[in-house]
TrEMBL record:
Species of provenance: Eleusine coracana subsp. coracana
Alphabetical UniProt keywords: Isomerase, Membrane, NAD, Transmembrane, Transmembrane helix
EC number from the UniProt entry: 5.1.3.6
Broad enzyme group: isomerase
Lineage top rank: taxon: Eukaryota
Record gene name: ga03157
Protein name: UDP-glucuronate 4-epimerase
């Protein structure tokens, strides 16, 4: 037995149970290295990327896109039960079939993160793990503090201590614009009026990452995603839960603003978001620190990733009805004071100029792809309300 195996084993023995279970010794260390190794490929950029929240909606799509073009990817995800964990497990299997290994663990586990950086000199971190959802923040505020504040700081500590320090690209949110009513939302607009705790934690994330950029020279890119949708999406989001209810013949609740004004979102298709994430990774300059010490200034960037064409929620419902070929039973009620904002609309000039970001999928085309995936994943056949998974 080698010395490195012994020290690894003692580390595993003293760590949490799930860690021991999911690593299981040298075999697992080999899997991590294999998954992280870039492949020779004309389109790959030779990166080794740690993707947090890899079993999530955006994490799965980004991990697949990176792996497909030849980059090395290792995922980490805690598979929490905010929404159906079996969907996260199915995404994990999809990733495994493409050679992406996802470690089951929490970003609050600093020992796990340090071990991952010991095993692999990650060049980049794509940080997507978070407690998402605007309205759930009123039900479970602690989960937002756990993942979006404490977890973020633990991750940044691990990145700052890593040698080499990775460049970090992470998901902020359009919700940071809060009550801002200047449209379209530009990165220079005020973001000091969050309307939900979720938004407040994302805004805090922007300030926290700035601190680590300033003190430790970490290269930081924050991406403000605008209501992302698509295949393998999130069951808690309106387009997904509306689809489920419409197919099951159940009513949907459509929120409306004051004075009967329709709510609107700058719905953005997942493939466009993936291109924005990869463009950010490709253009991120290196962190400048080593051994926890800054050696020079590092870039701090923030970009909107939206679609620049807001659509009202009733129009979203009509498009779904068309693709599902089923009429929705709608309850229209005034938006409760639950953290929602009346509209979002992204100005994407900065991302276009600096990342080459150019969204190409409109809501009709994107929802068509989503519905196709949904019907297939949940085992529906056209003309039947029966399915095999729900
Ligand atoms: N989908 C959107 O419309 C949208 C919009 C704006 C911002 N965002 C942000 O983009 C990121 C990805 O969102 P998504 O839609 O893929 O959400 P998601 O919930 O599908 O993915 C997040 C993943 O992170 C994991 N996770 C949560 N807390 C964790 C922790 N403490 N440790 C390890 N893993 C943890 C979850 O299990 C989940 O698989 C999030 O940061 C979210 O806040 C999403
Ligand atoms: O861009 C973001 O930063 C955020 O995007 C997403 O939030 P939202 O834009 O709120 O998406 P989503 O829930 O699909 O509601 C869409 C619309 O349907 C309305 N809505 C919603 C539910 C319902 O039952 N009825 C309804 O009318 C609702 O009032 C809204 O007008 C992410 O979930 C979030 O994680 C965050 O990151």
């Amino acid at each position: 037995m080698t010395a490195s195996y012994l020290s690894f084993q003692s580390f595993v023995d003293t760590s949490h149970k799930y860690f021991a279970a999911s690593w299981g010794g040298l075999h697992w260390e080999r899997q991590i290295r294999a998954s992280a190794a870039p492949r020779r490929s004309p389109s790959g950029s030779g990166m080794s990327v740690l993707v947090t929240g890899a079993a999530g909606f955006v994490g799965t799509h980004c991990s697949l896109a990176l792996r497909k073009r030849g980059d090395g990817v290792v995922g980490v995800d805690n598979f929490n039960a905010y929404y159906d964990p079996s969907l996260k497990k199915a995404r994990k299997s999809l990733l495994a079939s493409h050679g992406v290994f996802v470690v089951e663990g929490d970003i609050n586990d600093g020992r796990l993160l340090a071990k991952l950086f010991d095993v692999v000199p990650f060049t980049h971190v794509l940080h997507l793990a978070a407690q998402a959802g605007v309205r759930y923040a009123m039900e479970n505020p602690a989960s937002y503090v756990h993942s979006n504040i404490a977890g973020l700081v633990t991750l940044l500590e691990a990145c700052k201590d890593a040698d080499p320090q990775p460049a970090i690209v992470w998901a902020s949110s359009s919700s940071v614009y809060g009550l801002n009513d200047k449209v379209p939302f530009s990165e220079r607009d005020r973001t000091d009026q969050p309307a939900s705790l979720y938004a407040a934690t994302k805004k805090a994330g922007e300030e926290i990452t700035h601190t680590y950029n300033h003190i430790y020279g970490l290269s930081i890119t924050g991406l403000r995603f605008f209501t992302v949708y698509g295949p393998w999406g999130r069951p808690d989001m309106a387009y997904f839960s509306f689809t489920r209810n419409i197919l099951q013949g159940k009513p949907i609740t459509v929120y409306r603003g004051k004075d009967h004004v329709d709510l609107a979102r700058d719905f953005t298709y997942i493939d466009d978001i993936v291109k924005g994430c990869l463009g950010s990774l490709d253009t991120a300059r290196k962190s400048t620190g080593t051994g926890g010490k800054k050696r020079g200034p590092a870039p701090y960037r923030i970009f909107n990733l939206g679609n620049t064409s807001p659509v009202t929620v009733p129009t979203l419902v009509s498009i779904l009805e068309k693709h599902l070929r089923v009429k929705a039973k709608k309850n229209v009620i005034e938006m409760p004071g639950n953290g929602d904002v009346p509209f979002t609309h992204a100005n994407i000039t900065l991302a276009r100029e600096q990342l080459g970001y150019k969204p190409t999928t409109n809501l009709d085309a994107g929802l068509k792809k989503f519905v196709k995936w949904y019907l297939s994943y949940y085992g529906y056949t056209r003309g039947s309300s029966k399915n095999s998974r729900q």
